[in-house]
Amino acid sequence: MSKNMTGKAKLPNSASITIHGHPGQDLDVSVDIQGEINRNTDSKRVKKYLKDGWKWTLYSRIIVAKFPNKEMLLLDGDHRRHMYKLAFPEAETIPAYVIDVDSMEEYHKLFYEINWEKRKSATKEEVFVQQVKAKIAEAVSTNLKLISCGVSVCGSSDPGGTVGFTTGPNVTVGAFRRTLKRGEKEAKLAIDTVRSAWPTDTKLQGELMEAVAVLYKTFPVLSDGSVVDADFKNWFSKYLSMYNQHMVASDYKSRGGRVHHKHAESIARGLIMDFRRIQLVGGTSASYKQKKLPVAKCNGLIE
After folding, report:
1. Is the same domain home to 251 and 271?
2. Which of 51, 83, 102 finishes a domain?
3. Tell me, what's the pLDDT at 116?
4. What one-character-per-residue DSSP string does 66-98 give?
5. What percent of the chain has pLDDT over 70?
């Protein structure tokens, strides 16, 4: 720790700093205190942290939120709580720093501020679920689009830890948002197409999902009700489904050029170049598909 501050940043004067709330309290709370949609607690991490025993000098108090009705919920420190229970099996209470919160929305907002904005220790999915619960506008908007597209984001195995279309397959929030940038209509078509090939999969491969949206955006003929449209969906659901999603994504990324920073576009190019050359029984000819899907447009995906 430095005795002196370095750098040339212009710091605010004391009079301009807004003080929010008031200090919390150091209290002992039940060692079995629970949170609302906790992050999944990793047993490997607990084992690693306890390798050299419990260290009072290293582990800070858990953070607990206290509501106006006096109810308390764990806000941060579930790994530490489990470690404490293992180290002190007879203990009924655990040292905590208790802060006052006004609502459940504030509770969820504090979660992602502590675990993401301040130290980046939570996954994007864990943070997104908390943002939805905190009713952050951007997260709420994305959640509605998840529901519309029939997919979900899982941030915790706890009840309420999955948002979006909760019975639909999981996607990562980053992949879903990248897919949405290709157009909401195209995103929904892509998700429906991928699901048609792997209807029982509980997760969708993000780059593959985005790649199919790229194709629908680039080639309107794939979604206009034409014979090429029918051929594409038939090929995707009946032939690509013989392999798993990750194999398809990896194989077609290589076929498409595997261009750095253009992974989805590389997969899209690989898919469309392969589709152009095949002829399905009862489907359109390869030459007709090549006319409708010009090679220049295919190559343009990675240029």
Report:
1. yes
2. 102
3. 67
4. E-TTS-EEEEE-HHHHHHHHHH-TT-SEEEEEE
5. 97
Instruction: Point out which residues pair with 163 in neighbouring strands.
Output: 153
- The amino acid at residue 277 is R
In this structure, the dihedral spanned by the alpha carbons of residues 280, 283, 288 and 292, taken in order and rounded to 10 degrees, is -100
Q: Which residues of the chain have pLDDT under 50?
A: none
Q: Do residue 194 and residue 296 come from a single domain?
A: yes
Cβ neighbourhood burial of 124 (10 Å; 0-12, 13-18, 19+): middle
E runs forming strands in the chain: 25-30, 62-66, 72-76, 93-100, 152-154, 162-164
140 lies in some domain: yes
Which among 168, 203, 224 is the end of a domain?
Answer: 168
Residue 1 falls inside a structural domain: no
Phi-psi region of 73 (alpha: psi -120 to 50; beta: other; left: phi over 0): beta
What pLDDT does 152 receive? 98
Q: Do 196 and 267 share a structural domain?
A: yes
How confident is the model at residue 283, as a pLDDT?
Answer: 87
So what's the pLDDT on residue 259?
94
Beta carbons within 8 Å of 224's beta carbon, 6+ residues apart: none
Domain count for the chain: 3
Amino acid present at 194:
V
Which residues face 30 on adjacent strands?
A: 93
| Residue 30 token pair | 């039940």
In angstroms, the CA 156 to CA 168 distance is 15
Among 249, 189, 193, 197, smallest CA distance to 220 is for: 189
Work out whether the CA dihedral 165, 166, 170, 175 comes out positive or negative.
positive
Q: Return the CATH number at 59.
A: 3.90.1530.10
Question: Which of 134, 130, 140, 142 lies closest to 171, judged by CA?
Answer: 142
